[in-house]
Structure formats: structure tokens, C-alpha cells
Q: What sequence folds into this?
């Protein structure tokens, strides 16, 4: 399988970095505070901005109360980096993109303190461009995050490949018009014909280029 693109957009949590333990640890503490089961909390939150999840679980709360929970969660998640590691192939892929001068950005629902902390804890190369919670008015699954990601690279969405693992993020990237590589795609997304490639690991990805048109060729192996 081969794809061509001029730039690359990466989700962070679950795509480049394994932060599952800390995410679920912190959100389960939130669930305990409001009397919701861990299963109910975990089944909803992944890939979505924290405020979206908080408003979902606190429909009767005032905005001030929601923001109090938001700040509490942000502090907890930004200070807890235990178990955060790079996913297989992530460091090598980003290093390769830097070596060949390919534009790339991280597009995450996390806030700056959380996103930067996890990028550093995982030992990932730091991107020149970030799209974080603070930079968008509508988070994933809305297309805005990936539209902004393409914009910060000065590229059209269709000339970018987005790497995503969560349903909300895949919807966001597809709606933005990006080519999509799904990493460990949820079962309901694996059936979406619009997804260009489904992989188990970023270790399956290699990138060549650029060619005379400024395109980079992404190659996908069958195994990682």
C-alpha cells in the first residue's frame, strides 16, 4: 500500500504515545467523585476534549462548576506521567520525517500542559507545530482540529495524511478531508471505506521523498 502526501498530522494519545493508564486512572477518579462507574466513564471519553466529556457527565452543572472539574483534571493529568511511553515505531517515524524535511504537526484534544508533558515523557521529537485544545473552538469529532492542522502546515487537508486511533479523531480527520491512517481502529471504524489504511503499529510505516512535486510517499508493510 502506498499513499502520497505533502504533510502529516498526528493524534498524540493512543497514536504516538501510550498514555492509556494515566488517562483512565485520572478519569476514574472523576467518576468516583460524581458516582459514575469506571466502565461508563471510559466508554465515552477517548478521543474527545475533556470539556466535552465533562459537560456530558455533568449536564446540570454550571459552567463554573464544569471549569473547576476541568482545572482539577488538567492538574492531575499534567502531573501524572507514570507509564507514559512512545508507541512502537513512533519515535523512528517522526525522526525520519525530520530527517527528510517533511512537515508534520501534532493534533490533540489535550491542553498544552498535558500534551507537552506526554510528548516529553514519551521521548517523542518535539513538533514545530501543535494544535491543542486551546487553539480550537470545536474539538474532535468536529473537523476543525484537522482543518487547523493542515492550515498550520500551509497545506490543503487532502494533501495531508492524518494518523488517528479513536473514533472521534477518525471522524474529525475524515470530515476535514484528510487521508486517514487508522492505528488500532475501533471495530466500528474499521468498516469505514473512507479510511485509506488500517495498521496495527506505526512500525509498519516508512516514508520516502520528497519528489519533484514536493510529495512524500508513505509505504505500509503488512507486518510490524
A:
Amino acid at each position: 500500500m502506498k499513499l502520497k502526501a505533502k504533510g502529516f498530522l498526528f493524534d498524540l494519545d493512543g497514536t504516538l504515545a501510550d498514555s492509556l493508564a494515566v488517562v483512565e486512572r485520572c478519569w476514574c477518579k472523576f467518576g468516583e467523585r460524581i458516582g459514575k462507574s469506571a466502565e461508563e466513564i471510559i466508554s465515552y471519553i477517548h478521543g474527545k476534549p475533556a470539556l466535552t466529556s465533562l459537560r456530558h457527565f455533568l449536564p446540570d452543572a454550571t459552567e463554573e462548576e464544569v471549569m473547576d472539574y476541568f482545572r482539577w483534571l488538567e492538574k492531575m493529568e499534567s502531573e501524572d506521567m507514570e507509564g507514559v511511553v512512545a508507541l512502537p515505531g513512533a519515535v523512528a517515524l517522526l525522526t525520519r520525517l525530520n530527517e527528510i524535511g517533511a512537515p508534520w504537526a501534532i493534533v490533540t484534544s489535550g491542553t498544552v500542559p498535558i500534551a507537552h508533558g506526554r510528548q516529553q515523557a514519551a521521548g517523542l521529537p518535539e513538533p514545530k507545530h501543535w494544535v491543542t485544545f486551546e487553539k480550537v473552538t470545536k474539538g474532535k469529532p468536529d473537523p476543525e482540529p484537522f482543518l487547523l492542522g493542515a492550515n498550520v502546515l500551509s497545506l490543503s487537508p487532502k494533501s495531508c495524511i492524518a494518523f488517528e486511533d479513536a473514533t472521534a479523531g477518525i471522524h474529525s480527520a475524515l470530515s476535514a478531508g484528510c487521508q486517514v491512517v487508522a492505528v488500532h481502529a475501533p471495530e466500528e471504524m474499521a468498516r469505514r471505506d473512507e479510511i485509506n489504511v488500517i495498521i496495527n503499529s506505526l512500525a509498519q510505516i516508512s516514508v520516502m521523498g520528497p519528489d519533484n512535486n514536493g510529495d512524500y510517499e508513505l509505504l505500509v508493510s503488512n507486518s510490524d
